[in-house]
Amino acid sequence: MATLEASSARDSISVNSHDTALCIIPPTHLWPAIDRLRSLYDKAYTKWPPHINLVYPFVRHDVLPSAAESIHSIPLELDAAGVFAHKHENTLHLHEDDATRSSRLSGLRKHVLKALGQPANNYQMHMTVAQTEDVDSSAHKLLLDKLRLLPPVRWEVDQLHILVRERLQLEGGTATSRMKIWGTIRLSDGDISRPEKPLGFYDKQLSLADKDQLRTSSPYYFNDEYDLWLPYDGAGKDLEYPEPEDYLQVSSYNVLAEFEWPPSEARHKLLRDDIFANTALADVLVLQEVTDSFLSYLLHDGLVRECYPYVSHGPPDQPDVEPLPSLLNIVILANFAFDWEFVSFHRKHKGSVVAKFRDGVGGNVFTTVLASVHLTHGLADGAVAAKKVEIQMLLKYLSETYPQNPWIVAGDTNISTSSYTIDAALKKKSISASTAGYLKSFDQVFADAGLVDAWTVTRAETGDVSDYSFDAADYEDDEVFEGEQGATYDPIRNPLAAAVVGTGFNMRPQRFDRILVRGQGLLEIRDFNKFGFRRNQTSDLPDATYASDHWGVRCAMKIVSTEEEEKKHKYSEDVSFLVVPVHLTKAPASLSAPGSVNECLSSLGVLPSNEEVDKRKIAFDLLKKVLLENKSNTTGQQQVVIVPVGSYALDVWTSASDIDVLCIGPFSSNTFFSLATQRLKKAAVASQGSLRVLRRVNANSGLMLELEVLGINMDLQYCPAAGIAQRWPDVLSTPASDPVWSLSAQALSKLKAVRDADYLRRSIPDLASFRLAHRFIKTWAKSRGIYSAKFGFLGGIQISLLLARVHKLLLVRESRTAPSIPDLLTTFFNHYATFDWQRQLVFDPLFHKHGSKLPYTRSTTREPLAILGYYPPSLNTSQAASVPSTRTIAEEFKRASALLTTAESNTAMTWTSFLDGGSPASNTTATAAADISSKVGAATYFLSAYKSYVKIDVQYWGLSPSRGRQFVGWLESRCVMLLVDMNRRAPGVYARMWPARFVEQEQVTAGNDDEEARDYQGCYIIGLDKLDESLSKEELKVASGALQTALRRFEEQMRGDEKYFDARSCWMGASMVNRGSLPPSLTVDAREWGEYTPGDDADESDDDEDEEETEEEDYDVQEEEAAAKKAKRGKKKQRGKKEEKKALPILPPGQKFRTAADVINRIRWDPELDSSEYIVGYEDRFLGARERALDTWKSEQTDEEFIPQHRILYFKRMKRASKLEDGEIVWERKTRRDIIFGSGVAE
C-alpha cells in the first residue's frame, strides 16, 4: 500500500459527501455505557454507532476505494464532556481531554486530508451523546453533568471505519437513513478490509428485548475491603443468598426529584431520615425519581451500606460507575443479593426495574419477582391511555416470563383515585368519559391478574394507623371523597405536593403509591403502613416542609408454606359455621347509574349542606374551647381529650342527629362535671343563649350532660382514664391486651364507642362510599320503621357494623375491587335478606379471626339478635332486641331484596321510589319525598296495615316538664319487655311495634303553647298479625287471652313503680283495639318528649366502684333558670317538686348502706360464710326478677354473662329443711336491709 507521503502527490479528492464518513468507532464492549444515554437523548441513536468523526463529510461513494488507499495505532481516551451551541439545538459530546493524544488524532486527520488533496481545517474531536434545546436551562446542565459522570472510555484506535449512508423508506412513506460499514482501514499496515455488502450496526428496529437488555446491568454490592461499590456477579462464595426469612418487607418511596442547577441537597437528610425510620426499614426498598446527586449522597451513608448492601445502580460519583440513565430513575436497594432487568414500556424514560430474589421457608425455596413502577404522570386522555398501556405491558411480561412465581408490584402508579378530581376533570372536559372509565377499571385489571392491594387487605383487617401521624383534629376536618382514603399524595396537608399541583381539581388527596401482591400461596400480606411524615427541623428549608411530596408505603408479607396458606382462610369448626360469605350482587340497570344514590339523598334533603357542616364544626370547636378554657395540652399539663363519637365521629350524621361527645381525662367524674357545668354556665351567659345546659342525667354509663350549642343538641360524657388521654391518639392502635386497657367495665363501656368508631374509620376500604351508603340505609330503615335501637331495632352503630362487614368482605374476599355504591347497596340488602338471624351472628371475620373461637357466647333466649362490635366489655350491640323486633328486621330485608329483584324488569324504578315502597318515580311527589325522610308516610301505612293493634296510652299533666319527659322515656324503655312477654305468652302472634309515639293532630298544635305543653297525651302502637294462617279460631282466642294477660301485667308493673309513676300527675294504659278504633288523626310526634337514657332509674348507691358515689340527678336546667326569672311560676314548680318528693318513702337513718359488690366479696372471702349457700336475686331486662346461685355469678366485666351490679335486688340463703333461718334475705336494695354488715336501715 502506498504511504501517506506518496499519496499526497495524487490528485485531490473532494470531501463533500454526507453519505460517507471516515470515523473512529470504539470496540463494541464499550458501547453499552454510552448507548444507555444515547438511546434516551441522541436523536441519531440507531442511525449512527458510538463514533468519532475523523472526516465528515467524506468522499463520494464512487471514489471510496481510492480514498481508502490514501490513508499507524493511536491511544484514545474520552474523559471529558463538552457542548456545541447551535442556532436551534445544542450538541452534548465526549472528547479527549489530553492535548498530546488529541493532537495525534488531529495529525492523523491532516494526513488523511492531505492524501486526499484537501486542506486541513479546524477540528475538534468529539463523540456526540445527546442534544438539548436551551443551553441555559437546568435540564441542559443536568444532562451535561450526567455526561461528565460517565467513566472514561479508553481504547487503542487501531483501525478507521468508512461508513456509507443507506436511504430507507418506512411504512407510511416516511424517509429515513442509517449508516453502514463500507470498509475498515487497519492503521498498523494500512490493510483495507471490505465486506461483500455494507454492514449495519443496529437492526432496522431494535427489538424490545434488545432495548431492555441495553438498560439492564449488574447490581452492585458494597465491598468492605475496598470500601467501594462493586458489580455483583454472584460468583463470590461470601455473596451467596442469605438464608430465607419468615417475613419479607418491601418499602416504596417517591423521593421527588428536583430539576434545578446546581442540584440542591437541602432535602437529602430528611429523605435519608425517612428511609431509615422504624416505619420504613424493610428488606427491599424501591425508590422513584432518584437523581445522580441523591443516589451518590445516599450510597455514601454508612447506614445504607449496613441495611441495604445491594443496589441496582451504583453511586454515580464513583469514578468507575455510570450515571443513572434518566433524570428520573427507579432504584432498588435490598439487604440480600438479587438480579434485575429493565422492562421498557416503549416510551423513553418509562419502564420497570424488575428484580428477582430468592425466598422460602422450611425448604420450600422459590423466586419472588418484584416489579417497580413509576407510571406516566397526569390526568389527561393521553396520560391515562399511556398508563393503561404501561400496565398492560408489565402484566403481559410478568405473565409470560414468570407465570408461576409470586409477584410484587411496587411504586408510584400516578393513577388518580379521588372521585372529586375525576368528576371535576370530566365536567371540565379535561378527560373523556372513556378515560374516566379507564381510571375506575385499573383496580379490576390488577385483580384479574391476581394482584391484591396490600393497603386494602390490611386496612380491612387491622386498620390503617398511619394517619395518626397527623394532628387528629386537623386530619378529620376536611371532607373525604370516594377514593381519597389512604392517600399517599395529599396537596391539602403536604406543602410540597401543593406546590407541584398548583390549584384546581388536582388539589385533592390521591392514592398514587401502592404495593400489589400476587402471593401464589407463598406470600401472605400481614401489615401495611405509610411513612414520611417527619417535618423539617433545619433552617435550610421552609417550616413544616416534608422530605417529599409523596408519603412512603411499606408492606410486610409472611412467607408461608402450602399448608399454612390452606389454613389461612379456615376457621375453627365453631367459628366457620358462623361466617356467612358475601357474594357480589350487581344493581339492576335502572339503579346502577353513577351518582344515582347521591341524587336520591340530595332530593330527600338527607345530605348535610356545607352550611350545616360548618355550623357543627364551629359548635364542636366552641364546646372544646369552653371546656378546655383555651388551654392547649402542652407539656407539663394534664392531658384532656375531647372527641366525637357516634354518627358525628363516622361522619354519617344527618340534620336531625345529635353530636355525642366523650371527654377523657385524669380527673374524677365529680370533679370534671363540676368544672364543666361551671364553665358551661359561664359561657352560656357570655354567649347570650348560643350555649345551654339542658339536663343532667345519671345513666348506666355514668353521668351525662345534655347540651344545646348553636341550636345543635349534644350529649357530653366523661371517662376518667389518665393513661388513655396521655397516649392519645396512638393508644387507639394498641392491642386490647395492652395494660393501658386494664380499666373498669364502666370505663371500657364509655371507650367502646370511640374504639369501635376508630376501627371502623381505619378499616373501611372507602369511607366516602360507606358514608353515602350508610345514610341511604338509615333513611330506608327510618322509612320502614326499623330505626330505633331502644325499641330493639337497628341504630347507627348496628347499620355501621352490618355495612362495614359487607363492604370489607366484598373487597377482600369476593371481588377484590371496590364495588360501586349501587352494587354495594344491592349486595347489602340481598345478603341480609337470606341471613339466618336466629342461628348466625353478624361479626367481622377479618377482625375476629384469631383464636379457635369467638370471644363471645350467645344466649339465644336473651339475645335473639347478635350484631357484634369489636371491643369489650360487651360485644353484642343489639342487646335490646327482642324476637318480634328481630323478626321485623328480617321481614324488611326480605321485602327490600324482593323490591330490588322487581327493579330488574321495572326500568322506571329509582332509588327514591325504592324508598317509597316501589312506586314509580313519577308518582314520588315532593310531599312523598318529605314523608320518606321523616318516616311519616310509612307510619301512616302502618296504622292501616293490621286488623288488630295494641295501643299503649300515656298521659302526663304534672307541673314539671322534665318529670314528664322522664316518665315518658322510662315507659318507652320498658316497651321491649312487653314485646318479650307477648311473644312468650302468644308465640303464634306477630307483634310489630312502630318505633315512635303517636299523638292526635290537635296535640301537636297545642304543644306549641307553653301552658298546654305540660298536658301531654300520646300513645304507642303495636300491630298484631298471625304468624301462621292455619291458626284456628280457638287458638286465636287463646292467644288473645294471653295477650290481654300480658297487657294487664305490663300495666301493673308500670303503675306499681313509685319512682316514675305518680297517679296524681300521670297515667298509662294498654289495650287491644281494632283498626277502626284508632283515632283517624294520629300522627308521629316529632317533639322531644321521652328522651330517656336507660339507667336513669339506678339507685344512687349502685354507682360503679370506679366512679364516685353521686347523687342521682335528672333535672331541667332551663326550667330552673326560668323559675328564677318568673317567681310565681317558679313557686308552683317548687311546690310541685316538694309534693312529688313527699311521695317517696322516708327511710330511718342508719349506717351507710353497703353496696352489692361489698356483699359479694364478703360472702366469697369470709371463712365463716359459705358462698354455695347463697342466692342472688336480680332483675332481667326481659324476664323480670330472676335468681341464680352466687357461685355462678360472673364478676368479670368482660364476660358476656356479666350483669351490672345495679340490677341486683337481694341476696338470700338457700332453703334447707335442717335450718330454720334458710331462705332469709340477708341484703335487699329496696328496703335497704343488710344483716351481712349491719349497714343501711337501723333495726
From TrEMBL:
- The main enzyme category here is transferase
One example GO MF annotation: ATP binding
Record-linked InterPro entries: Endo/exonu/phosph_ase_sf (IPR036691), Endo/exonuclease/phosphatase (IPR005135), MJ1316 (IPR040459), NT_sf (IPR043519), NuclTrfase_I-like_C (IPR011068), PolA_pol_cen_dom (IPR007012), Polymerase_NTP_transf_dom (IPR002934)
Q: What is its main location?
A: nucleus
* One annotated Gene Ontology cellular component of this protein: nucleus
Annotated SUPFAM superfamilies: DNase I-like (SSF56219), Nucleotidyltransferase (SSF81301), PAP/Archaeal CCA-adding enzyme, C-terminal domain (SSF55003), PAP/OAS1 substrate-binding domain (SSF81631)
- Which stretches make up the Poly(A) polymerase central domain? 769-913
What residues does the MJ1316 RNA cyclic group end recognition domain cover?
Answer: 1153-1229
User: So which domain of life are we looking at?
Assistant: Eukaryota
Q: Where is the Endonuclease/exonuclease/phosphatase domain?
A: 252-467
Q: Where is the Polymerase nucleotidyl transferase domain?
A: 635-671
Provide ranges: composition bias, Basic residues: 1125-1136
Ranges of Acidic residues composition bias in the record: 1094-1121
Its Gene Ontology biological processes? mRNA processing; RNA 3'-end processing
Q: Which UniProt keywords apply?
A: ATP-binding, mRNA processing, Nucleotide-binding, Nucleus, Transferase
Annotated segments matching region Disordered: 1077-1145
Q: Which Gene3D superfamilies match?
A: 1.10.1410.10, Beta Polymerase, domain 2 (3.30.460.10), Cyclic phosphodiesterase (3.90.1140.10), Endonuclease/exonuclease/phosphatase (3.60.10.10), Poly(A) polymerase predicted RNA binding domain (3.30.70.590)
Q: Where in the cell is it found?
A: Nucleus
What EC number(s) has UniProt assigned to this enzyme?
2.7.7.19
Similarity field:
Belongs to the poly(A) polymerase family.
Q: What is the protein name stated in its UniProt record?
A: polynucleotide adenylyltransferase
Lineage from the top down?
A: Eukaryota, Fungi, Dikarya, Ascomycota, Pezizomycotina
